[in-house]
Design brief:
alpha+beta, OB fold (Dihydrolipoamide Acetyltransferase, E2P), DNA polymerase, domain 1, Helicase, Ruva Protein, domain 3, 3 domains, 5-stranded mixed beta barrel, 9 helices, DNA_helicase_Holl-junc_RuvA_I, RuvA_C_sf, ATP binding, DNA-binding
């Protein structure tokens, strides 16, 4: 199995990159977070790899840090979550926020993810809650959801909002989250 790859980026899309290593181009599916860290075509990149073997294909999934790889592997061990679904989940929020959602059993946060229904969200919580650690019952992600909805109502896309919220401290109250996210969004548009 391939555990990591280091090479030059030959091609880049929103879902995968092709990395040239010793004359061989590897197609590597990547998370949105890793995509944002991926350099320009022709530059060197180093990725942690999960090799997914199926009957009809061998797919590579790349991550910029080992923590993201481990969380991805936890997600794909949940029945009903495949590698593409796990990448979608990782694209929604930071790993810390996802751990908090799972640890508190916040199914409403998980169902906001495209393709994740109530039953799948419940499965994720049941199967991963002990692995990510239980959070205090009073802890809630409602502020994160409120901030996300407020920013979307201002005309920002869901992906822009997610990226901005990943860059700010998760323990801020809703109003401060919105203000900080607007600063991040303002910098990225200028």
């Amino acid at each position: 199995m391939i555990g990591s790859i280091k090479g030059k980026i030959n091609f880049k899309t929103e879902k995968y990159i092709i990395v040239d290593t010793a004359g061989v181009g590897y197609k590597i599916n990547i998370s949105p977070d890793t995509l944002s860290k991926a350099k320009k075509i022709g530059e060197e990149i180093s990725l942690w790899i999960h090799t997914h073997v199926r009957e009809d294909a061998i797919d590579l999934y790349g991550f910029s840090d080992h923590q993201e790889l481990e969380f991805f592997e936890m997600l794909i061990n949940v029945s009903g979550i495949g590698p593409k679904g796990a990448l979608t989940i990782l694209g929604v929020a930071s790993i810390e926020t996802l751990r908090k959602a799972i640890g508190t059993g916040d199914i409403s946060y998980l169902t906001k993810i495209s393709g994740i229904g109530k039953k799948t969200a419940e499965k994720i919580v049941i199967e991963l809650r002990d692995k990510v650690g239980k959070e205090k019952e009073g802890s809630s992600l409602q502020g994160e959801l409120d901030a996300m909805e407020a920013l979307k109502s201002l005309g920002y896309s869901q992906s822009e909002v997610r990226e901005a919220l990943k860059k700010i401290a998760p323990d801020l109250d809703t109003n401060k989250k919105i203000r900080e996210a607007l600063k991040v969004l303002g910098k990225s548009s200028s």
